[in-house]
Write the structure tokens for this entry.
Amino acid sequence: MKLHLQTLFVAVGLGIKRNWHIFLSIIAGLLFGNFLHENPTVFEPLVRLLNIVGQAFIRVIQMVVIPLVCSAIVVGISSIGDSKQIGKFGKKMILYYGLITVFAVVIGAVLVLGFKPGVGVQEFISQTSALEIQNQVNSVIAEQKGQIGNIFLNMIPQNPLESLAKGEMIPIIFFALIFSLALSKVGEINRPIVSFFESVFAATMKITDWIMIFAAPGIFALTTVAVSSFGLSIFSTISKFFAVVFLGFCIQFFIVYPLILKLFSKVPFSTFYTAIIEALLVAFGTASSSATLPLTIACCEKRGISHKICSFVLPLGATLNMDGTALFQTVAVIFLTQAYGVTLEPIQIIQIMILAIIASSTCAGIPGAGLITIALVLNGLGLTPQQLVEGFAFLFAIDRVVDMIRTTVNVASDAVVAAVIADNENEIDYDLLNNTEQYKEII
Ligand code: ASP
């Protein structure tokens, strides 16, 4: 049966590998979405249908995320066993994730202060931010006020089962970490639970394999629907802002990550990007690091990084490490202050960068989350309430496209950090990683 299915898909894809299917489906989605954008009324039912297909794809991946995260952490930590080693991995993880995010906000700040994309665009922002969006964002801004104090408190679940049911990733991870540490301390009695989670992990990875069969149509549908709402001409209207954000993402992706891989490990970056390409494409299509997590784990594990590292570093990264988001937030906030002629003192720029690091790492790995938490960074910068709403609404209108790219950056950095730590700890099978010709499809 499996063979027949594969044969069918290879036949449909003219004998090419799955990552090419996904890549081509993104291109097709961009073009078709643009076409639908220009002919909105005729094709409305089709957009609705594609929306259902795309949402179904995201839902089936999201369906496995919580069992996957819980089982990965339990199995990973109990296989590390020794709490000293866990502490060592943890410290390295915080160090590398921190380093990458600091790079991101500094790059964002330097670019936006250097290129000044916001100067002279106030009029444009007011025109773009439609009134109905302004009404929506009012409540978001109000909700985010005063959130900073609660951020750390909200990480601790009062009731882990409630957090599980609500899908709150940070409290779930917090509990899973403590639970797994405790399990690793109680000796042989932990066997039934660990075996149970080993089975859960294996089964969720199998489901991920199956889901990948539908990656190409799913990503095509998601991309088409996203582009049909804004059209490709958006790139010319928001060109200055977009160019700066995009340049920042490119520097992070093509310079900072390769540099980090080079300085701290022996992992060749081009090989590594080939190893995680399916995850990057799915990140672009879904705009969700959480939904991409099963794929990120599958790519890293099947191509040489040990389970120990993947199961510990990647779930935490998908939830806490959002350097693409931090870069975007820094650029966006300074862009708005430029547009409204607010002069920033150097201390305020530093404040924006620090808040962007905090706001990004507290945002969930789901579409649009980085835009919601930007309200944390925007408050208190001397913008009037009206400017705040207008500016936020402008970012809201163009967010999906920026989100697709920043999510790809977020996912890449999680995998890069996992690779560096795995290298440092002798947890990479280089024969597997370097043999790109022999990479197995994720199925
Ligand atoms: N969508 C992003 C992610 O999942 C978060 C964000 O909105 O910036 O990584």
User: Anything to note?
Assistant: Residues 287-289, 322, 325, 363, 365-370, 403, 406-407, 410 surround aspartic acid (CB under 6 Å). The chain has one domain: 2-116+143-319+398-438. Residues 101 and 252 are 10 Å apart (CA to CA). Residues 44-80 form the longest helix (37 residues).
